[in-house]
Write a sequence for this structure.
């Protein structure tokens, strides 16, 4: 008899609990989602970007909850739609127990802006392309030329090295690809630095820095049209018109080979101790 009463008590308790839970869920699902109930968080990154506007996000949220009720929010579909936005790296949508709808947006951060064949777009650190915004322009390295997707990884590594080095960051303002060779555009605009392929970047940049510190700083800024560091153990310079090869001189403690070139014709080769 005692067992029957115990089972009956458990059954009644479960029924009451189920009723209360159902009632609570109904009240929760019927709660209205107003403007204050939607919490949108943007720019969850070390580099603030503004490709996505909070107003646009709220418009999309309203589209997926026309009744403005908690229970009618299609969270999976809403999250999928937000993740499809080109400038969104990831989107996370969730409800709090207090009925607040949280929308966390992580935007893509461009590493460089590429102009390839008249088409312009950004590329993030994952090598993903996304379109240029009409309302916001992000400051990043400008790249032009026929750059292949398979070259994005090494190009990103190069740009990250430039951004971390104060000398390079102040000196190099852009990258071009011409006839299969990559070139670094300089801040003074008088000459370009030819690096060739994207291999041995540390070695090439170190060689150019040494050339600048020990030689170039003593020369007229407009003397050269191109300085090439793509060759092993040598720097090849192209003179602008009005300068003669014999005017070149380099004082350094290390043995350095410099080929002075006018146009495509090599005019002098010097080994300087």
């Amino acid at each position: 008899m005692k067992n029957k009463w115990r089972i009956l008590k458990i059954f009644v308790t479960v029924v009451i609990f189920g009723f209360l839970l159902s009632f609570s869920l109904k009240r929760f699902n019927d709660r209205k989602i107003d403007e204050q109930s939607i919490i949108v968080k943007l720019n969850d990154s070390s580099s603030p970007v503004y490709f996505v506007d909070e107003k646009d996000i709220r418009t999309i949220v309203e589209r997926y909850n026309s009744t403005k009720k908690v229970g009618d929010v299609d969270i999976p579909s809403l999250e999928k739609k937000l993740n499809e936005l080109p400038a969104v790296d990831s989107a996370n949508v969730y409800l709090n127990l207090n009925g607040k709808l949280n929308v966390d947006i992580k935007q893509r951060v461009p590493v460089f802006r590429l102009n390839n064949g008249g088409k312009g777009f950004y590329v993030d650190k994952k090598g993903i392309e996304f379109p240029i915004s009409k309302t916001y322009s992000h400051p990043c390295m400008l790249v032009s030329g026929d750059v292949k997707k398979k070259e994005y990884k090494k190009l990103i590594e190069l740009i990250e090295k430039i951004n971390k080095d104060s000398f390079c960051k102040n000196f190099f303002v852009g990258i071009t690809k011409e006839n299969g060779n990559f070139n670094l555009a300089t801040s003074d605009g008088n000459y370009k630095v030819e690096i060739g392929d994207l291999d041995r970047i540390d070695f090439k940049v170190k060689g150019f820095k040494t050339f600048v510190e020990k030689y170039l700083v003593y020369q007229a800024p407009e003397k050269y049209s191109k300085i090439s560091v793509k060759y092993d153990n040598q720097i090849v310079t192209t003179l602008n018109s009005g300068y003669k090869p014999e005017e070149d001189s380099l004082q350094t403690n290390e043995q350095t080979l410099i080929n002075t070139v006018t146009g495509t014709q090599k005019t002098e080769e010097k080994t300087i101790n």
User: Anything to note?
Assistant: The first strand starts at residue 38 and ends at 41. The domain at 35-107 is CATH 3.10.20.310 (Ubiquitin-like (UB roll)). The mean pLDDT is 79. The chain has two domains: 35-107, 110-272.
